[in-house]
Amino acid sequence: MVSNWSMLRLAIPLLTLFLAALPLGAQDALDAWTRLESDAGFAGAERQKVGERNGGVLRIEAGKLLRLHKKEVNELGCTHAPGTGELLALAADPFGLTFVASSLGLFVTSPESAVIDRLRLRDGALSAAPNSLGFDGKRRLWLASAEQFGVLEPSHFYGRVIEVPAAGPYRLLEVGQTRVVLQCGSETWAYSPDQARAPSLDRVLRRAAALMPGELLEITYGDSLQLSPEGSAAGGAVLRYALDGGHNWNLWKDVGAGIEPGEHTLALVAMDRDLNLSAPFELRLRVLYPFYYRSWFVFGLAGLLALLVFGCFSVRGKAAARKAADPSLASMPRALLSSALLLVIALQVLAGAIPHGRGWPFIGYSMYTQSSDVGHISHNGAIMGFGKRGSPIPIPLGTMGMAADNRWQILHPIMAGGQAPREAMRRYNQKNPNWEQVVRVQVWAKRTLIQANGPIDLAPLILSDWRASEALEPGR
Amino acid sequence: MRASRDLIDALRGPTGSAWDRFWYGDAPLLRLAIFRIIVLCMALYALEFHSMSLFQGDAQSALVSRRYVPIYLLEVLQIGPLSPAAAHWVYYALWCSISLAILGVCTRLTCALSALGMLLWVGMGYSYGQPHHEYGMLAFALMALPMGPVGARLSLDAWFKRRRGQGGAGPDAALAMLPLRFVQVSIVIGYFSAGSSKLRYGGLDWMNGYTLQAFMHEFDAALTEQVSSSLNLVRLMSVGVIAIQCGCFLAVLWRPLRWFFVPAIIAVHIGSQYTMDTGSFMGLWMMMACFVDLERVPAFLARRLGPGPLALRMMWAVLCTAVTLWVFSMYVHKGPDVVPYLLGLALLGGYSARRWR
Fold it and tell me: Model pTM?
């Protein structure tokens, strides 16, 4: 006969083993979901009308998307050849865009654009067209389709699909500041993001040896990095990287072969299912030139060639001097000069055939060489300020009064936040005291679609948003 | 004079090899002297243009993230970034050497020093951002100047020589063509590689009009919207750009074509400034002066501004004034203000001295 105590003594270890065997993600997933009693009180996240930043209103009416602004009503066009499909819902982005869910995919528009444009979503995003959507307090765009539930980063369009503890079809009922309510068939569930511990990039291995943050790696141009980063995050870590402080966190892959010679920084992060990024794990890279670009080879080869050419010109000069009975044709300075001329011209021709900016002044003159066609989207990085009335105020990059060779040298610090956006606003306002003062600044990548009947402005990508009243804090 | 003829004529010359006749011909010394002054004025322009960049260095600033990534030349010579203080000293030294070279004091030496100094200055400026095409041709022009008798005219060296009774050189001299020819060839190689690479990488589709529209819309220039909205106009511009860039070598072969190619290349750059916000590229197209018989310009203008129908004279006067003011304004926009005024004074002084001698 087995006593109760014996059963308990057996059950406790078994229960412990069972709980320990559960994957961490699954445990986290369970913590984030709460089943609700009913879906009563939720209107559904298929908003049919939203306000725009400039005071306009967008609304879905009779299958069309209409914009009412300053008493004018206009129907928005569509750049997607098959059309918009059935328009289902609108979501107002805190940064000023409007996202549109339709049966044919996810579209975007803004007050600057008279069209809606179908987005090409990136890794991890929902694969099916969304039926409902909404923004939370952290500017994450939550989406549901009949088959999937997930979240999208609205500046770079990568996302995550989140496992749901119930079967579909799915539909968002509410997207709040800290909670998302999802209809799952006949059940109603609430998802609370950010409940699990923060993601972390645990270690980065290179050939089975762990690297330290800030460590210097040396590779030769064209070699792979041979890195194996490992991270932990709710829902499984998705690893992303950025090179040289770039603003775009790309899906991790070994990018060693594509990195130009020189000094670089590589930042790696782990991303959880709620798009939270871990603190970056930074490495310094030194990419060495291949041997045929190293100084000893270049100078050695150049010296040999120079001697060869000089020899040819000397012999030729002496022969010409004998033939023409003109000793000046055999002069050494002339042979030297001819050698230098020939080598410099040859280098210019070589630079023209194989151009590289770092070879200045032998730079080659190849630029703007790629052809484009109908359907191409041009991007134009810019700083956009906003006054208290919300009207956009383009801020010329030259206003900054700093030496900058390309626009991203100014745009990146503003995107990163801190002192830069405040200083940008201060400088603009100081230079233009009689104009509307800027109290908010965004970094845009303006987009223009090349079409057969003329270029058309699309909604810009808005990469950052900072408000003066929030000092160093982001405008989110 | 051999070098004043076009290349085909020169290659048919009776003495020396084709190589020698091409490079070592004689040319008017006055032409070389004027070219020297133009190139050195553009060197001052480039000096001023990059001064903010070198004075700020890679000092941490809230507003700008700049890294020093040396160009290959500085990297192999292991020349590191100049501190802002050292940059100021180099700036003043370059102002002195370029000014002395303009005035023609120890002309070949000061030209050579200016060339080396500007190689360092511009190369370092580009090392804080990315290299651009504008001052590559200027660098070659500066390096070419000391190869010829650049101080034989319009220089204090020549004036002192005449005062010492050592006699001036004739109007032409051997090797005077060399710097001009070198810059011509460099320009032609540059533009040909620009045009041919567009066809090489982009194919004939580069001229479909959409390509140029796409490039224009990466910028907010004054005429971007107006020009890019007309597909036919943009197509015409695309074809024109390829034809001008790939065909400019013809200007070396046959002189009359310079009447087309010199203004055409300048028009391409001005067009890109107003549609793609590329900047004026003045440092590049001013080097086209190597194709112009500069010593004949005063007489050319005198014939058109002097006798003749009033309407025609007025038209030429307006055109000359407009072009002068336009170049003047473009120069002072990014270059040192004082230079055009000083040059203007020097021209007036020189003209007056000749007139009242």
Answer: 0.84
